[in-house]
Amino acid sequence: MQGVTIGGKKVKFELVGEDDQADPRTGTTVAQRLVDAGVKGVIGHLNSGTSIPASRIYDQGGIPQISPASTNPKLTQQNFKGVFRTIANDVQQGGALGSFAVKSLGAKKVAIIDDRTAYGQGLADETDKAVKAAGGQVVAREFTTDKATDFNAILTKIRATNPDVIFFGGMDAQAGPMLRQLKQLGVSAKFLTGDGGCSPEMIKLAGDAVTSTTYCSMAGLPLDKMPGGAAFRDQYKKRFGGEVQLYAPYAYDAAMAVVKAMEKAGSVEPAKYLPELKKISFNGVTGNVAFDDKGDIKEGAVTIYNFKDGNWVPM
Amino acid sequence: METLIQQLINGLVIGSVYALIALGYTMVYGILGLINFAHGDVLMVGALVALQTMMFLMGMAPGMSPLAMLTIALLVAIVVCMLLGFTMERLAYRRLRNAPRLAPLITAIGVSFLLQTLAMIIWGRNYHTFPQLISTTPLQPIEGVFVTPVQIAIVLASAALMVGLLLLVNRTKIGRAMRATAENHRVASLMGVDTNAVIAFTFVIGAGLAAVAGVMYASNYGIAHYGMGFMPGLKAFTAAVLGGIGNLGGAMLGGVVLGLVESFGAGYIEHLTFGFLNSSYQDIFAFIILGLVLIFRPTGLLGERVSDRA
Amino acid sequence: MNELAAAVPWLGKRNPMAARWLILIIAIVAPFIAWQFGKSWVRILDFALLYMMLALGLNLVVGFAGLLDLGYIAFYAVGAYTFAFLASPHFDIHLPFWAILPLGAGFAALAGIMLGFPVLRLRGDYLAIVTLGFGEIVRIFMLNLNYPVNITNGPQGINMIDPINLFGWDLSRNIQVTENFSINSLFLYYYFFLLAVTGSIIFIQRLQISRVGRAWAAMRDDELAAKAIGINTRNMKLLAFSLGATFGGVSGCLFGAFQGFVSPESFSLMESIAVLTMVVFGGMGNIAGAVVGAFVLALLPEILRDVAVPLQQTLFGHVLLDPEVLRMLLLSLAMILMMLLRPAGMIPARARYCHDEHLINKLKQEAAK
């Protein structure tokens, strides 16, 4: 990030990193450390469960926070002035999933499972709403936990309702074994899950149970379809020497939003550049970056992926 | 109807897993009166060691038959877990045998978390895919009811192990020594029983059983990770108490009953409570049963027949 | 405070009075020292005080009465959720702090009795397992009571909880003394929590040397003998559970208000174990032990984060064990090694029976009459 001039002065950006361990209390402690360190803006956190409590600390410290990954709608509904995100939230994602199940997959009967985490339940609830809105029927609503491995009992119950599509709101560690057990129970319904299950891990854990009727969604566009995706991949490889991490483009755009707002305001002080951040609009790696009045990204895209030839393929 | 039978099978399979773990719990408790909290984590070590062995074998001898591979992995896991059980007993529990009651229990909790942490360091936090070498292709004995060979193997294995243990305890010399030690340490040692050796032996057998349970569990679900043993361990303990702790047949019965309660509970609770409760309460059945049994029938379903204590 | 004072190395035995003042002074200046390292350390101290209160409460149950409770965090949850229900936009009820605190404590005490009644007959390991189950049941209900009627808001937790407000004085706002000098809200919370912990210590200390405390000690050491000398062990056990729970409840209320957000994740079994380790590490049955144990183990992960990572980086060039793993490792080793090598904890309980100065003096006075 060279050659950025703010208020006539060349500035150098410095990265202060902290690990929140995905734990709410650690999240607040880390947030406080960042506020202490006098950071001018925060890009984070990953999980909604930590982003939400941490946002209160940033708000008290008067520091803008842009999450590249937290998708829980609550994050931006707290009336904090400086909370933004560069990724589509669960309302957008759940909406896309629900209408995909009914409209594209032609499902009349949908069964929904969630893992009783803030993420899984939030996404499942939004999907539930969207299925109903699209004219589908939710025939079963079942629950498990984010530590469970045996889903036979609930899957058997679901099997009895004969659904066309089974949606799971949760992570790959559960979705994989769940798919296996579905196969073992002779269930042939299509399987749909959110971004938590949209990973290479999921393919590994599900073994031969993941098929061409397995779908997952991811907020945002696939890297190849991002306007600046190809260039970003090259740069990323050159700099970090590996494949692009899932949320990296969103984190990049989040950081760019802060820099651009600072440039426009001619100041690095949060109080000065925050109004500019609210109004920002530029073409980032992931697309046009602009926030609505709550702080959610305006054009939050959601992509559905399908399992094909050993990989997730965007549809 | 298919649903009912399927839930019965689900319950039977998960119940057999609990039973398999409960056998180890109950053996150790019968002799020492100690809840070996770390038993579930020994299971986890067993599964992960077996996984590691299979990975190694697949790399070294790709052409090996799956059954041979599984057998070798199982044996390695059993040996490692037995060593682990021996070490645990020798380093921690033996010194606390005459300590106040809370001390061994707190130590056991510590050992449990220590094993989890060490496993996290060695094998990482991620879930691992466990090769399913016994077929998981479902069979359909009745139209609409599905069973996989690995599930059948689990039920058979836990029944066979229970019978084997009963024979060991009731028909062998070491079994007699175990029963004597369970009855009264001091008197047994006066009668010439080397109680230290007997207790160590019990721990080793218990750990070996945990290894078998771990491999079975991982084969059934196709996954293994560092925290996989904790919850099944707790539930198996419930099963052991339910059946009558210290009683091998009881452990088997308790495990199966608990499995059935869980699977029918998750399947039918919504109808039973008019939609007020649902499958999200699946995990509390074990704890509620445990509480009720301990309060109303502390001896468990089968009571505590002294002659069967092991 | 007596035990705490006596635990001060060297000075404690020679001049308990001076030791007492020393502790008080350290407690008062602690946040200023922490401030030098950053605001976050004051926040960590605030949490350490909450853990102290939890450890003190659990110590009543485990250390004094000898009842191993592995579900203690449930009472913390009850307190935190009570506060969240009654002072947040969730139900749109905003009761004042003073009104909720006794309610939170009361509900927790009630939960303690609810747990206590059925487990009266259980001992040792069985008790431990049933209390563990109780803790999990409470957590599972918190997690799922958003349906069919939304009570706890399920896994999403309750957000935007009101801060502590003492007669119109909002602890979450910094006090602007002059333009350049303000007292940070974290300090206000610190001293408020410190007051609460000090109050608890004084209360528990009185309790320990009272009839009740001695009855507990007798029950812990030999239940049968205690019964034989006429102690109503049933009532004593219930009292231990409910009083211990009360401290958990109060601490939970403070936690809810301080953090501003509660969700079931914060009340996992691991937290119960962590508090138990604090008690065990410090020394069961001993106030100073609980305080020191909580202080050390609450600060440990934060210190590890600052020390262990850079240290590993310089030693090995990369981070082998992240702080969370290290923390787990140390916690579990602390539990095992403490039991094996120093079962009485860092600061062994001095008054195993009742060799307390107060009591000895009292007996002397009585004898003199």
CATH topology of chain B: ABC transporter involved in vitamin B12 uptake, BtuC
The greatest interface between two protein chains, and residues involved on each side, is:
B-C, 44 and 42 residues
Uncertain parts of chain A: none
Total beta strand runs of chain A:
14
Major beta sheet of chain B, specifics? 2 strands, antiparallel
Average residue pLDDT of chain B: 90
Level of helix content of chain A? 40-55%
Shape of chain A: elongated
Q: Approximately how much helix is present in the residues of chain B?
A: over 70%
By CATH, the superfamily of the largest domain in chain A comes out as: Response regulator
Total individual domains of chain B? 1
Description:
The complex is a heterotrimer of chains A (315), B (310) and C (369). Chain A has 315 residues and is α/β, with parallel strands linked by helices. Chain A contains 10 helices and 14 strands. In chain A, strands 7-6-8-9-10-13-14 form a 7-stranded mixed β-sheet, sandwiched between helices. In chain A, strands 3-4-5 form a 3-stranded parallel β-sheet. Chain A has a two-stranded antiparallel ribbon with strand order 1-2. The longest helix of chain A is centred in the C-terminal third of the chain and has 18 residues, at 248-265. The model of chain A has no long low-confidence stretch (mean pLDDT 89). Helices cover 72% and strands 4% of the residues of chain B. The radius of gyration of chain B is 19 Å and the shape is globular. Chain B has a single domain, classed as Orthogonal Bundle (ABC transporter involved in vitamin B12 uptake, BtuC), CATH 1.10.3470. Chain B contains 11 helices and 4 strands. In chain B, a hairpin with a 2-residue loop joins β2 and β3. Chain B has helices at residues 2-32, 39-60, 66-93, 102-123, 149-171, 173-183, 185-190, 195-221, 230-243, 248-272, 284-296, and strands at 128-129, 139-142, 145-147, 223-224. In chain B, α5 packs across α6, α9 packs across α10 and α9 (230-243) runs parallel beside α11. Chain B is mostly helical and 310 residues long. In chain B, the strands form 2 sheets. A two-stranded antiparallel sheet of chain B has the order 1-4. Chain B has a two-stranded antiparallel ribbon with strand order 2-3. Chain C has one domain (2-368): ABC transporter involved in vitamin B12 uptake, BtuC. Chain C is 69% helix and 3% strand. In chain C, the strands form 3 sheets. A two-stranded antiparallel sheet of chain C has the order 1-2. A two-stranded antiparallel sheet of chain C has the order 3-4. In chain C, α3 crosses α4 and α6 packs antiparallel against α11 (233-259). The mean pLDDT of chain C is 87. At the B-C interface, α4, α9 and α11 of B face α7, α12 and α14 of C.
